[in-house]
Amino acid sequence: MTNIEGSLDTDDDPDQIAAGITERGGHELHPDWGPLPWRIYTDPSGNELCVLPARS
């Protein structure tokens, strides 16, 4: 399994990025880790992808 992490730029919309991931077959995971600044997904092959919004 591969784990990819991506940090967004300040002009990127996290909700739009999330929609693009799910439109391409990704699934958002909801681990019981408490509030996190990033979102975790799996791609159709089961690899994990973390998306971190830009710091404001």
Description:
The termini are far apart. This protein has a four-stranded mixed beta sheet with strand order 1-4-3-2, with helices on one face. It is built from one helix and four strands. A hairpin with a 5-residue loop joins strand 3 (39-42) and strand 4. The longest helix has 10 residues, at 14-23. The model has no long low-confidence stretch (mean pLDDT 86). It has one helix spanning 14-23; strands at residues 3-7, 27-29, 39-42, 48-52. It is α+β, with helices and mostly antiparallel strands and 56 residues long. The radius of gyration is 11 Å and the shape is globular.
Mean pLDDT: 86
- Stretches where pLDDT is under 50 for at least 5 consecutive residues are none
Query: Main beta sheet: strand number and arrangement?
Result: 4 strands, mixed
Give the percentage of residues in beta strands.
25-35%
Shape: globular
Radius of gyration: 11 Å
Number of strands: 4
The helix/strand series, from N terminus to C terminus, equals EHEEE
Structural class: alpha+beta
- Alpha plus pi helix count: 1
End-to-end separation in angstroms reads 32 Å
> Percent range for helical residues?
10-25%
Q: In which order are the strands of the major sheet placed?
A: 1-4-3-2
What is the strand and helix layout of this fold?
Blueprint: E1 3-7, H1 14-23, E2 27-29, E3 39-42, E4 48-52
